[in-house]
Amino acid sequence: MKLAVKTLQNKDAGEITLDESVFGVNVRQDILHRMVHYQQNKRRAGTHKTKQRSEIAGTGAKPWRQKGTGRARAGDLKRPQDVGGATVFGPVVRSHATDLPKKIRRLALKMALSAKAGSGKLIVLDDLKANSHKTKPMAESLKAFGFNSALIVGGNEIDANFARSTSNLPRIDVLPSQGANVYDILRRETLVLSKDAVNDLTERLKG
User: Fold this and answer.
1) Average pLDDT per run of 10 along the chain, which is 207 residues long?
2) Could you tell me the strand order of the sheet in which 150-153 lies?
3) Can you give the pLDDT at residue 206?
């Protein structure tokens, strides 16, 4: 699969051949769904917490005698029905991470890349270097490509000026190649890869 390479000013800079085993696989929605679910579960903090019966402040003494008062029996005032009492089966601090085989994760990333390539939403840039850290000239350059939202993936390191000039642009995300992931690719309309990113992802995923 061949794709035109553009400069940051949207001018032609040759073409690149994309590996079919990475950018041309059949897309399955169920695998993409499983991968997004896996990523979102892993990102959850899991710090929600309610107090159990042993954690409620107060005395453990029996508040009144067992019989003869006309009231329901009670062993302490930490019961769920008491004001300020414990929560039954409430959330506790835990990990929400779920398991997904490494082969499925690799395949899902290939499918996300292939989905963008197959729908014409993949742009390859010659490089991601900016002459200035200013936002306005970068916004004008990206506006020429005609997308409203995009994930831009560079090589192993992102140029400092490019990172600064895009940091305030709405719906524009910038990641190094090792940070490319299914969720961020799918959540944006267009995927923009540098030639270095194409090479890194192909080397990482081929075979």
Assistant:
1) 89 91 95 98 95 92 95 94 94 96 97 96 93 92 92 94 94 95 96 95 88
2) 12-17, 2-6, 122-125, 190-194, 150-153, 172-175
3) 84
- Ordered DSSP codes for 54-110: GGS-S--S-SS-SSSSSS---S-S-STTSTT---TT---S--------HHHHHHHHH
Give the pairing of strands 2-6 and 122-125.
Answer: parallel
Distances from the Cα of 27 to the Cα of 17, 18, 56, 108, 110, angstroms: 20, 16, 52, 8, 9
| Coil vs helix vs strand at 22 | helix
> What is the greatest pairwise CA distance in the chain?
93
Same-domain status, 101 and 159: yes
pLDDT at residue 106, as a whole number: 96
The span from the CA of 148 to the CA of 194, in Å, is 19
| Residue at a domain's end among 58, 73, 95 | 95
Residue that terminates a domain, selected from 95, 116, 135: 95
**How far, in whole angstroms, is CA 3 from its chain's centroid?**
27
Q: How far is CA 46 from the centre of its chain?
A: 16
Determine the residue type at 93: V
Q: Which two tokens stand for residue 122?
A: 């993949």
